[in-house]
Amino acid sequence: MMKILHKLILPVVAICMGACDIPNDIPYPIVEGRITAFEVEGQCGASGKGEGSATIDKDTRTVSLYVCDTVNIKRLKVNRIELRSETKNPDVNYQEDIALMPDSSACLNFARFPRRGFNEPGYQKDTRMDFSQDVKFTLTTYQDYEWTVSVKQVVSREVDVENQVGNAVIDPITHNVVIYVKKEQNLRKVKVNRFSLGGVNGKVTPDPTEHETWNFFDIQKFQVDTGWGETQLWHVMVCHTDDVIETTAQAFARTVNAIVSGEKPNGATLQIEYKKENGQTWQTVPQEHIQQTATTYTADIKGLQPATTYHYRVTAGKSAVETQTFTTTELLQLENTSFDDWCTDANNPKLLYPWAEGATPYWETGNKGATTVGNSNSIPTDDTSTGSGKAAYLESKYIVIKFAAGNIFTGSYLRTDGTNGILGFGRPFKAFPSKLTFDYKYNSETINKVGEEALRYMEGRPDSCQIYVTLWHIGENDYEEYNGEKFPLIIRTRPSERHLFSPNDRRVVAYAQLTQGADVSQWTSHTLELKYKDNKRIPTHIQVVASSSKYGDYFTGGVGSTLVLDNLKLHYE
């Protein structure tokens, strides 16, 4: 009997052991860790003034921001970090869990820096860090993702003395200053007009501006108390030079204004004049519209006509710039801004398009994807803000197997990829609007459809609509392409290759958005004020997007949420 049992057991063991040789081809989940918000004490804009937000680039995994001169960048307190996971293969079950690991050498108290979030109850946290150099953060999910945070402190240092030639050379690392002056300037009697070495909130001792003149025949030493509580010793040297600063000027024309900037001799009285190309009378730019340092200036010429050529000239003392020209851009508007024009697809009566029959498409919707298994959920309505024409009625629906937000955007619907969409965002546009106004109504339903586990926490919360406008500057090699068509951005909603819009994209020139999470039952007018990142890039494309559910790209929202949109208009000031 034992021999028979033994013979039976051996094959079973062999089968079990053979099963262990089957390769494990179950894929691990790919869950990318992302930083979505980063705030520190003293955060400001690039100018050192006002409030500023961090620039976050998910592709390069970098965060950059500015702080003012009242905080110690070597002991900077981090106020808020928000993390988010982005699933690349959501069909694999996983537990959402992101651990944050800062660079230990940058932390003042590494053991007390939060690892799971800044709101952990009872956690005795210490978030002070040394940001005098870039700091690395590692986000750990199933994989490690390294992010780099760069903090730049804006310290406004300026030196202006009589007969100065060019800007002073100010080295904040070695605390040395070199000032060049004309040959005829007596170095023992130098009149000092401005002497800011510690920033706006700093103090210089002794202060040479409190004296009629100051002796700079030899190198002078000054104690500088900074706004963040540090005391520094600075060395200042004044030297003669044969160089002569001539007045220069260059113009950056927008739609109804132009920025003129350049260099000028120190102490010279500045005058900027302009007139239309065929005009007879020169107009003078008011002094309050001109910002000046010792040897530089920037002027904003306002109230110009669009698509018009102007002459301008700049005089600074005995130095002048010959007459030059600039041409303002056209004043452009979006097309079909009241959404009066719609048509039906000839091959599919369920599919509605937001343009007139036979017209060139400008706006588009996600209806092509929705009508593969249902009806259009972005349609025209007679309920308008003006009482006539049509408006865009965008409704969030659960269409057979998937949640779909009602939406409309400037661009093209390129393809339905399974139950996902591929979209081309943006239309050509070369102008500088300051605002976008529109009329809207919104009905917010409770979020009852969640497309992926990372957003499960939103279930049961009120849904939100979102409307935003973006101006792009797309260079020759900055386009994104799909089947030969070029756009500023190709949207892909498939989770494994998701590619969505970010206002922190380096190609974005200006941006503004509205997110509304409460009911707006009556027609309401709203204004989006565009914030420009700089005055050095001309827009090439415009992107306007409206959605009845903000997280529709993640197939998350409330069934029945509706956004009605009408009467869009760009304004120029």
Task: Tell me what you see in this structure.
There is one protein chain. This protein is mainly β and 573 residues long. The chain has 4 domains: 31-153, Immunoglobulin-like, CATH 2.60.40.2340; 158-240, Immunoglobulin-like (Sandwich), CATH 2.60.40.4120; 250-327, Sandwich (Immunoglobulin-like); 343-571, Sandwich (Jelly Rolls), CATH 2.60.120.890. Helix content is 4%, strand content 43%. The strands form 11 sheets. Strands 27, 32, 33, 34, 36, 39, 40, 42 and 43 form a 9-stranded antiparallel beta sheet that branches. The longest helix is centred in the N-terminal third of the chain and has 18 residues, at 2-19. The protein starts with a helix and ends with a strand.
Keywords:
4 domains; mainly beta; Immunoglobulin-like; 2 helices; 573 residues; six-stranded mixed beta sheet; flat; 44 strands
